[in-house]
Amino acid sequence: MTRQIVYTPKAAKPPATYSQAVKAAGLVFVSGTSPADAVTGAIVGSTIQEQTRQCMTNVQAILEAAGSSLAKAVSFTVVLADEDDFAGMNEEWIRWFPSDPPARQGAKLPARIPGLMVSIAAVAEA
User: Fold this and answer.
1) Contacts of 35 (CB under 8 A, 6+ apart)
2) Which of 19, 55, 92, 108 has its CA 20 to 30 A from that of 86?
3) pLDDT in tens, 42-51
């Protein structure tokens, strides 16, 4: 099996410890993506809705760089800093997937990162 590292400057730069995504076995595996601006690296938004929107914008850019799209997404993992933000995250989520949404699971952030409310990972068909 071959694998291809995916990187786009149109999404937040990941830390040196992992790639934005890896394309392998006909799938694209997008790492947990923060709500950071692609140019400045700063967290975008002070509400869970704004941060979810930025995460999804970053995921979309990464999938497109891999030759995929949100329409080909099969699974997402949404990691929240505060479980009380679940309803607000869903408020933005439904704008991205108004019908036939992909599979999804949730988790709680294991560490506190100042200003970070959400991180989103994805798996999509290549």
Assistant:
1) 12, 43, 44, 45, 50, 51, 52, 53, 54, 55, 58, 116, 117, 118
2) 19
3) 999 999 999 9
User: How far is residue 68's CA from residue 22's CA, in Å, rounded to a whole number?
Assistant: 12
How many beta carbons lie within 10 A of that of residue 85, not counting itself?
19
Q: What percent of the chain has pLDDT over 90?
A: 94
Q: How far apart are the first and last CA of the chain?
A: 14
Say how many domains are in the chain.
Answer: 1
SS3 category, 95: helix
| CATH classification at residue 15 | 3.30.1330.40
List, in order, residues 6 or more apart from 51 with CB less than 8 Å away.
35, 43, 44, 45, 116, 117, 118
Structure tokens at 126: 């290549």
Q: Which domain holds residue 74?
A: 3-125
